[in-house]
Design goal:
With 177 residues, the chain is of the alpha+beta class. 23% of the residues lie in helices and 27% in strands.
Length: 177
Amino acid sequence: MATARWASRLVAACLLATLSGCIAPYDSNTDFHTGEAARKRIFNLPRVKEDQVPASATDYRLFDGGTFGGSITYWTFTCASLEDCYRAVEMMGGPKRDEFQPWQATKYGVDMDGPGYYFKDFKQEFWPIRQIKNGVMVETVYGNHEGLQLNVIDLDRKMVFHHYESGGFPDGPPKAP
């Protein structure tokens, strides 16, 4: 009997807290990191071989969000040379150079719009993937939209783009630019 009263009080307290606005709304911008903070988070991933990533890989930017059911990760960085870009992608768990295909815009809004596809309040402009004119890419969709991995190298800017999602993703088209 005491447990039932405790549970009903807890439910009432949670409902009251939610309705009164005591729980802060989610701000997607808090999941955006740059520089050393981004690099450390990226290199903390199990598939990344930090000691083999070329030192010329710099200007790291990372959005590491997600939900209880999966992850949503976007990162970019630049390199001094294209060789370093290809090497960095491979050492970060991505495809080998011979697996890349010529760049083409993908049909998925989650790839083309970056975190802004999900989070309308996302203010950072670190995902200039639409500006690519000369690039290469590998896009892999797992199952029936259960997961996605995109690796792109902008050959002109020597910029690497990486997008990974697990736990399912929507197959909606990109927003109009």
